[in-house]
Q: What sequence folds into this?
């Protein structure tokens, strides 16, 4: 995984600050490929409760993590009981690694 221990800790802390203690976060996509270079950070945020404003939550987490990573592009995918599950969710759950 091409994230330092400090970056992983920052992502976990920011995720909990934005979405609460009960959420989990997974990294998926190109950041899991140690041979790759560059690229954005793809995160799957797993929530146990319904989300009232998913676009705002995803944007808020993306912006905070991006700032912590000096402007690196961050994509946030949400999984919650009230949100539609798409094929990208299956990929993120299958290939992603919990932080």
A:
């Amino acid at each position: 995984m091409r994230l330092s221990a400090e970056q992983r800790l920052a992502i976990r802390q920011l995720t909990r600050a934005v979405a609460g203690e009960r959420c989990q976060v997974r990294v998926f996509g190109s950041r899991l490929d140690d041979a790759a270079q560059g690229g954005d950070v793809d995160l799957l945020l797993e929530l146990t409760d319904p989300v009232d404003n998913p676009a705002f939550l995803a944007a808020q987490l993306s912006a905070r993590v991006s700032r912590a990573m000096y402007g690196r592009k961050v994509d946030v995918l949400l999984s919650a009981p009230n949100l539609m599950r798409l094929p990208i969710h299956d990929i993120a759950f299958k290939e992603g690694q919990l932080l």
In short: The helical segments are 5-19, 54-68, 87-95. Residues 5-98 form a domain with the Beta Polymerase; domain 2 fold (CATH 3.30.460.10). The chain has one domain: 5-98. DSSP finds three helices and four strands in the chain.
